């Protein structure tokens, strides 16, 4: 798959799989970020009678960040790597729920990345009814397996 084939299915660029893969498509790649698309479905994890709770936007944003990392890995000939959502700040929701059938455009932009692969991203989700924003802190260590082994040992 080539970046010229956009938009394309999200799963090529992200390690998540159903049912936890919430993204539908990679729409655009920029130097410091990307844009993804999600259409809210009735069979999605976390769905309630009113729709998808807006707090799930944090996971949608984090998966978009993971997809951007996956693009970088695919360009180097590697598979997408696991990463970790460390936290968020300035989470502002435009609505309490995303309605089934609603289309979300998710844009993430890298603001900071240190030598330990800890990054800060500005994230925006645009819908017809408003905009949800957050700043997300993530980590993608070089050796995820050792981090998971330490976590499981404690």
Write the layout of secondary structure elements.
Blueprint: E1 8-9, E2 25-30, E3 33-39, E4 52-53, H1 57-75, E5 84-92, E6 97-98, E7 103-113, E8 118-127, E9 130-139, H2 144-153
Antiparallel strand pairs: 1-2, 2-3, 3-7, 4-6, 5-9, 7-8, 8-9
Q: Care to describe what's here?
A:
With about 150 residues, the protein is α+β, with helices and mostly antiparallel strands. It has helices spanning about 55-75, 145-154, and strands at about 10, 25-30, 35-40, 50-55, 85-90, 95-100, 105-115, 120-125, 130-140. The chain has two helices and nine strands. It has a seven-stranded antiparallel beta sheet, covered by helices on one side. It has a two-stranded antiparallel ribbon with strand order 4-6. A hairpin with a 2-residue loop joins β8 (about 120-125) and β9. InterPro entries: ApeP-like_dehydratase (IPR016776), HotDog_dom_sf (IPR029069). It holds the Pfam family ApeP-like.
DSSP E strands, number: 9
Strand order of the largest sheet: 1-2-3-7-8-9-5
Give the integer mean of the pLDDT values: 92
Largest pleated sheet: 7 strands, antiparallel
Terminal-residue CA separation = 40 Å
The number of helical segments is 2
Contiguous low-pLDDT stretches (5 residues minimum) are: none
**What radius of gyration results from the CA coordinates?**
15 Å
The number of distinct structural domains comes to 1
Q: Helix- and strand-based class?
A: alpha+beta
InterPro entries: ApeP-like_dehydratase (IPR016776), HotDog_dom_sf (IPR029069)
Pfam families: ApeP-like
